[in-house]
Amino acid sequence: MAGHAEDADIIIAKNVNKWYGEFHALKNVSLTVKRREVVVIIGPSGSGKSTFIRTINRLEEHQSGDIVVDGIPLTRDVRNIEAIRMETGMVFQQFNLFPHLTVMQNITLAPIHVRKMKKQEAEARAMQLLERVGIPEQAQKYPGQLSGGQQQRVAIARALAMQPKIMLFDEPTSALDPEMIREVLEVMEELAESGMTMVVVTHEMGFAKGVADRIVFMDSGEIVEIGTPDHFFTNPQHDRTKLFLQQILK
Amino acid sequence: MATDIRSTSWVNTNHPAPAQKPPASEVGVLGWLRTNLFSGIGNSFLTIVTLIALYFIVTNLVQWLLGAYWEPIWVNRKLFAVGQYPLEQLWQPALVLLMVSLLFGLSAGRWGSIMRNLGVGLGALLLALALIPIGLQAQVVMAASLALLLIGYLIGARIAISGRWLAVAWVLSLPATFVILLGGINLPRLGVTWNFAPLVESNLWGGLMLTMLLAVVGIALSFPIGVLLALGRRSNLPVVKLFCVGYIELIRGVPLITLLFMGMTMLPLFLPSNWGNPSQLVRAMTAITLFSAAYLAENVRGGLQAIPKGQYEAADALGLGGFDKLRFIILPQALTKVIPAIVGQFIGLFKDTSLASLVGLLELVAVGKAVIQQPAWLGVTGGVAKEVYVFVAFVFFIFSFGMSFASRKLESKLGFGKR
Ligand SMILES: Nc1ncnc2c1ncn2[C@@H]1O[C@H](COP(=O)(O)OP(=O)(O)OP(=O)(O)O)[C@@H](O)[C@H]1O
Ligand SMILES: [Mg+2]
Questions:
Q1: A44: buried, middle or exposed (CB in 10 Å: 19+, 13-18, 0-12)?
Q2: What structural domains and CATH numbers belong to chain B?
Q3: How far is A227 from chain B, CA to nearest CA, in Å?
Q4: Fewest beta carbons within 10 Å, which of A47, A221, B41, B173?
């Protein structure tokens, strides 16, 4: 199925439309993401940022338009959906760790049962990932015993354990206290440097400026403007973009 | 000192101030009496009326208890315990008790929380029964059960036994109980007859043992059915959903006693004709299980509803498909949340099994009725019904209260890990 694995474009979204009942939440959204690219999506609340990245791994179903992830067309076919979900990791604003499982179990559950990895191997890899996100000593604790920043780093490790080609982040630092935002952003920066393809919804303009290859601005269910960080922050084109940047940068 | 806090700047030079005693009217016996019993004329009046009523009830009750004729209960203690189970084969129920005690001990040690509370209750009961001179053999069995409970606890707490195997042992203990009590396996239609002791037909089982068996089987068998019904009720398939909703509402709309009567009269209609004639016990258990499943489904549904959407999404995003998602993420959390509710349901069912006396099963209440009619007590003025029913009620109360106490202590601290 992963037919065009060598294509440069790993995510292709073409004219994606989504409605919640009568409400038009995504209007002809088109975007392609290249391998190893970091795309940051910004925009006011309710503009459809979450809705859009959640259509990429089918947490939300779109009603028209095409989405192709790593050569796999996103259709109703469960096998395609499963294949795409194996390729994409997702990190949520509310972490969504499994509270009844230890950190180690949170990370190894999917590799063992979805990737059919041996338990020992999965645990060894989980330890490596925990070291990578800086909390190897928390492996045997439960999520409820960790700080928000630690939980989000576990969530990142859990997603990485599936060896995804793409990582989706939906406001990963919005539920965190200021001093914990830094530790999560550092992990994300390291991930970007390692060459991971990332689509990140965030309000952290520092991260957008420093790490993004391209920035996408959305408003009212539409993509309004796409540009490099330089271009975006120094020379925004659309009035709506200018207004938004004024509001958040002042 | 003057505390002029209306000025713009002020410093409390008296800080730290020494603590003072509260006014006498707020503390001590008098303070407590005043705030709790005699706050105002109306409340004082209620307190006095209640005290007078209590005085008469308690004195009369104590007087009656002291003068009551407990002989029928003492003489029939075996009947109350196990019904007409043959005397020379009582080692079989004893074996079941030993097995269950060991399992409770292991579980208390392994899992703690509600299991530890229940284990303590069971231990206290066994200790009491070992000390009361109910008969040397029975006392030895109680003492041995107590010992197994403690040994099990130590093993469970000290040695890392597998929770999964312990759960399997619990599941197997149910059919094992039936085989032990029956004295073997007797399924002539399947061509299986094997016995290690003379067969004891289930119509000889009775008393507290039967009451327990009905309640435990009711909950245990209704558990998988209830979970399936709860899941089916949330299904996207309209037919499945309709069936589950229909079943749950239908069953919850009728009293258990009607289901018991239907089980007695109509069960063979639903079974293949060559299955023959199920025993009274099987019929009652079927009715109780079907009844309990509907309530369990509603309890489980409550647990499922309490799982945040994010848990489903995280599982989906990781590629954990339908069954794995249920098995590893959703059900463990949903079921842990509803343990107290299920214990509550079990207590209700435990008491409701008394209805089985109306369809000819010799459980605790039916034994009581039988004892009242024994010719030996015909000469007793006023009969012995009062004593017998007070005793039966007391037994129900001891178990129900024990279980509800065990789970109440748990509700406050139920959670995952050591949050
Ligand atoms: N399940 C839903 N049902 C109906 N409307 C929804 C649903 N989810 C989102 N919406 C609506 O769709 C629009 C886009 O929502 P979305 O969550 O994608 O916004 P967002 O850009 O992520 O905003 P935020 O920054 O607040 O997270 C909003 O107007 C929201 O009210
Ligand atoms: Mg959002």
A1: middle
A2: 70-85+203-419 (1.10.3720.10), 86-199 (no CATH)
A3: 29
A4: B41
Which ipTM was obtained for this model? 0.92
- Dihedral of CA atoms B144, B150, B151, B154 in degrees, nearest 10, equals 180
Q: Does B322 touch chain A (CB under 8 A)?
A: no
The tens digit of pLDDT for each residue in B261-300 reads 988 888 777 777 666 677 888 889 999 999 999 999 999 9
Name the residue of A19, A22, A24, A51 whose CB sits within 8 Å of the most ligand 1 atoms, as the mutation to test its pocket. Answer: A51
Query: Per residue in B153-185, pLDDT tens?
Result: 999 888 888 888 999 999 999 999 999 999 888
Instruction: Give A56 to chain B, closest Cα distance, Å.
Output: 10
Instruction: Please check whether residue B386 is in contact with residue B251, taking contact to mean a CB–CB distance below 8 angstroms.
Output: no
Mean pLDDT across the stretch B243-260? 93
pLDDT of the residue at B418: 37
More confident residue, B408 or B67: B67
Angle (nearest 5°) at CA A57 between A52 and A62:
50
pLDDT, mean of residues B69-91: 90
User: Are the Cβ atoms of A100 and B419 closer than 8 angstroms?
Assistant: no
Calculate how far, in angstroms, residue A58's C-alpha sits from the geometric centre of ligand 2: 15
**Residues A134/A183, Cβ–Cβ less than 8 Å:** yes
